[in-house]
From TrEMBL:
One Pfam family linked to the record: AI-2E_transport
Protein name per UniProt: Permease
Record localization: Membrane
Gene Ontology biological process terms in this record: transmembrane transport
Classification lineage: Bacteria, Bacillati, Cyanobacteriota, Cyanophyceae, Nostocales
Protein's membrane topology: Multi-pass membrane protein
Key word Transmembrane present: yes
């Protein structure tokens, strides 16, 4: 390698190191881009009805904030009341379960009794985990100010991007060489359409899952069915892991009434997720975003490892955008073109050889024909 190649390699390594150090900032910027793209597409739909740009943007932002405020207004008050009740109901449940285990020990043979777990020993073994969870909760509360600042940063960036999205898009395109800018602009169009498709499919799935959860919980007589249904729909935005996380508070609240309700809630959520994964997602999302399930799960594990909870929440849109860039730039523009010029040159040389051989054969036949005529 010459000096120029070494300098280029060092520059790439330094750039990757800087990008790694600011990865959280880049993720917040991406979150603002996704939110701005969503609100901008909604504003464009309002503009099709003859509404001016400023009024359309204000209406889109108002709908977004109304949805956020309504979500927390529906979720926080019922959960605060129910989880406060859990603080003294759960110990009662543990005591009742321990009495039931003691009665069972007295009725079964002595050879099997040692294999039945003791609730007290389980609590002692789980004590370190509980202490660690409490420590994480305190750390979460202490870091709540940082979370609020990040949310404000995303909202401010979203507002700036919504004011004039075309100008920011031109700035991004100009970061590429002049011969490739039109290509980048086309890739950005595909990214925008794919994000719109993901948002449309995800919104439909959220509504269906939330409605089915609310109706099912209401039939079972579980308290706070509306709040739990909204939470189940919202957590459905996190594929694979979200439904598992949403069933925990539903089962905890159902356990306050009767243990069989908790089991019924688990069966209900399992049934809803089977419908969502086998019917809703294949029919809706397959037409919007074509992602393999294994790729989605691997992307979630990757982004949650390096970016935390926000990376888990943004794993799917990040994967959608990354797939387009890899497919268009790496596959089509690099790998598909790799060695293609040499193949074309080889084919052209082969055609020239064939034409030359054909010309020689024709000339030879013509000479033989002239000799026959002279004879």
């Amino acid at each position: 390698m010459n000096l120029g190649q070494w300098i280029g390699l060092i520059a790439i390594m330094i750039s990757l190191y800087i990008l790694w150090q600011i990865r959280e900032v880049l993720l917040l910027i991406f979150a603002a881009v996704v939110l701005a793209t969503t609100l901008n597409r909604l504003a464009l739909r309002f503009q099709k009805f003859g509404m001016k740009r400023g009024l359309a943007v204000l209406l889109s932002v108002a709908i977004f904030f109304a949805g956020v405020i309504g979500f927390f207004w529906l979720i926080v008050p019922p959960f605060a009341q129910q989880f406060h009740e859990l603080t003294y109901r759960v110990p009662q449940g543990f005591n009742r379960f321990n009495m039931w285990v003691d009665e069972l020990r007295n009725r079964i043979p002595e050879q099997i009794a040692p294999y039945i777990p003791d609730i007290n020993s389980l609590i002692e073994q789980a004590q370190p985990l509980l202490n660690r969870a409490l420590g994480n909760s305190f750390a979460f509360v202490s870091g709540s100010l940082e979370v609020v600042l990040k949310i404000l940063l995303v909202l401010v960036l979203t507002g700036m991007l919504l004011t004039d999205p075309t100008a920011y898009r031109k700035v991004f395109v100009r970061l590429f060489p002049s011969f490739y800018r039109r290509r980048v602009d086309g890739i950005l169009d595909k990214c925008e359409l794919s994000l719109e498709g993901w948002i449309t499919g995800a919104f439909f799935a959220v509504c269906v899952v939330g409605l089915m959860s609310m109706v099912g919980l209401s039939v079972l007589g579980v308290k706070a069915a509306l709040a739990l249904g909204v939470l189940a729909g919202f957590m459905n935005l996190i594929p694979n892991l979200g439904p598992t996380m949403s069933v925990v508070p539903a089962m905890a609240i159902a356990l306050l009434d009767n243990p069989w309700k908790a089991v019924a809630v688990l069966i209900l959520y399992f049934f809803i997720q089977q419908i969502e994964s086998n019917f809703i997602t294949p029919v809706v999302m397959a037409h919007q975003v074509s992602l393999l399930p294994a790729v989605t799960l691997i992307a979630q594990l990757f982004f949650v490892t390096f970016f935390g909870f926000l990376g888990l929440f943004l794993a799917l849109p990040l994967t959608v955008v990354a797939k387009i860039w890899v497919q268009e730039v790496l596959v089509k523009d690099v790998l598909d073109q790799w060695g293609k010029q040499e193949e074309d040159d080889t084919e052209n040389n082969t055609e020239l050889v064939i034409v030359s051989e054909f010309a020689v054969v024709s000339e030879h036949q013509e000479v033989e024909g002239n000799k026959d005529e002279e004879s």
